[in-house]
Amino acid sequence: MRWYLVMKKILAVIYNKDIENDMNSSKNIALQQIFGKNMIDYSIKAAATFTEDIVIFTDDEDVINSYESRNELISSVDEIKTRIKKFDIVVFIYPNIPMIKGYHIQHIIKMMEQNNLDMLYAKDAVYCIKSKIAANYINNSLFDDFTNNITKNMIADIDVMRIVDRKQLSQCYKIIQKQINNQHMENGVTLIDPENTYIDYDVTIGMDSVIYPGVILSGNTSVGENVTLYPGCRIKNTIIGDNCVLQAVVSNDAQIGNDITIGPFVNIRPNTKIMNGCKIGDFVEIKNSTIDEGTKVPHLTYVGDADVGKKVNIGCGTVFVNYDGYRKHRTTVGDNVFIGCNTNLVAPVCVENDTYTAAGSTITDDVKQGSIAIARARQVNKEGWVEKYRKKNEK
User: Fold this and answer.
1) Does the active-site annotation cover 299?
2) What is the pLDDT of residues 184-197, one digit of tens each?
3) Out of 107, 184, 299, 329, which one is annotated catalytic?
């Protein structure tokens, strides 16, 4: 915290009542999202750089429901008046200024202190007032009274924009996108085309990773070092280890280890864990499953509700049949298993270590260690059948 703030008790009030809004939206403007964060979160983050005492002044039910666990909500002017008596300075911050930074607000407070002012106003952004006189200006027309009384003390606009409509929201997206992407590039990440790469605020990326255009990284996603994400990857709430290559992959709420190749055209659904050294090929879907180290799922396969062991090879066209029409069941596949092409594994079923399934089999019973399971009709060849068939149909 800056030296001029150390000795001051400061209350930050995120002011979210009667805010101008041309969004044409059912959502409160404070809850409009920009790169994975509500707009109000940007104001809260800025306030947190100079005080731990932050409250949200709102009467909107959606905002209250979203932030009730923070125990920082107040809804009446009387509550504000009671709260500010414990502080030296009160700072009122709009919730729809996502480009606000802590240093902007600190600059306003510093100017007020250095010029021995009782109040100061940064247009479209922040109101700053000493608590000893705040009660004289706080009533049901809170900001109107502030504006009328402190216009003569107004400082020059700080470099932020108050968002009230979709056009401004789009402009803000571009500005914050550039800030986020520039920070990643400074940290050693290669973005081939930053203008067409979309990375949420809280995403982390390790150095020497390469991100191609058309990639979207959102939520609580973490990407390791030396990872390559080719176009078409949309990754949300996913942890990716080091030295991975992903092509046209959609991943939600999953964990991906180190030294893994995935794609193209792969859907990794929630509660999936893919361990080190695996290969997941094209047109594969994995859901609520663990794929252990060194296993290969090369192509055209659905793995659902399964625990798959180490160094397994799952042949093309395999389906983990996990749903009986009423409930889901799990399949267990041991280590060093070879699943033949077009195998159906009908859960619940266990395929033990060191086993094979023959291509085209539908497995409904457990396969014991060291066995091969063959579950298909015996082939019958009828000699001369084609000639007889053709003659019959040519008449």
Assistant:
1) yes
2) 999 999 999 999 99
3) 299
